[in-house]
Design a protein that fits this description.
5-stranded mixed sheet, single chain, globular
Length: about 260
């Protein structure tokens, strides 16, 4: 199965992060003198199941990547950012696809992701229905590295959301009007639960619902076929949002 990949690199730096890094967009931040988006790009470029890669990117990012990607830079379709933000870009990405396409939507600033995690995710998604959403186990995360995350309690353990979702294009087309809320709350499983109803929230808060039950409830209540993919591949969810993240990553990469 071949996949079309859309990466999103339009997240702006908050004031404190901008002051330290000197850039407006997080995608322009460098770690060990390399663009922070390089690991995600190389991971998808090195995956044999990836058919096409596009990226909504700030001006100048292609030039910053060229020394590290060489001719592979020509395999990436750089798209202009939308004033409407992430949800507008997601809807635009969906509109560019054909009826039978398989689509991956992912954040570009995933400095700890690797090709093995991406390849495993895409292979697993071939046998899963609906929109596949990685759920990363808390036990796999270095809690000194990953702070201030919201975790979903289940009988199987605690999980936090990833920054990659994928599925057949018709599954995304069915929920396009719900995407704003889904994207806004993608890292907060509890907030996602609140979109569904108070009775559902109680099961989430008490931790009595399994991931399978949660998926079933979402499908029954909202008509969204959202399938959780349990994984220990923490690189799928660890991104850089704020200054504290940058300082932690900077220290981590310097130690390596």
């Amino acid at each position: 199965m071949k996949w079309k990949v859309i990466l999103f690199a339009g997240g702006k730096c908050k004031k404190a992060l901008k002051k330290v890094t000197g850039v407006n967009y997080r995608a322009m931040i460098k770690l060990q003198s390399k663009p922070i988006v390089l690991p995600a790009l190389q991971s998808f470029l090195n995956c044999p199941d990836v058919d096409e890669i596009s990226m909504y990117a700030p001006e100048g990012l292609d030039k910053a990547l060229k020394p590290f990607l060489g001719d592979d830079i020509n395999r990436i379709n750089f798209l202009k950012l939308h004033k409407g933000g992430l949800s507008s870009q997601v809807k635009d990405a969906i509109s560019r696809c054909q009826e039978n396409d398989n689509l991956v939507l992912a954040a570009a600033d995933l400095p700890l992701v690797n090709a093995s995690a991406i390849t495993s995710l895409l292979k697993s998604a071939e046998s899963l229905s609906g929109i596949v959403y990685p759920m990363i186990s808390r036990s796999s995360l270095d809690l000194n590295l990953v702070k201030n995350r919201t975790y979903l309690r289940t009988p199987e353990g605690q999980f936090t959301g990833g920054n990659v979702i994928l599925g057949k294009i018709h599954e995304f087309e069915r929920v396009v009007n719900f995407l704003d809320s889904l994207i806004e709350n993608r890292k907060n499983p509890v907030a996602l639960a609140k979109l569904i109803g108070l009775g559902f929230v109680f099961g989430i808060i008490t931790g009595t619902k399994s991931l399978k039950q949660i998926s079933s409830d979402i499908k029954n209540r909202l008509g969204i076929n959202l399938t959780p993919y349990k994984t220990d591949a923490f690189g799928l969810g660890v991104d850089l949002d704020k200054l504290s993240d940058y300082l932690v990553f900077q220290k981590l990469f310097d130690e390596d």
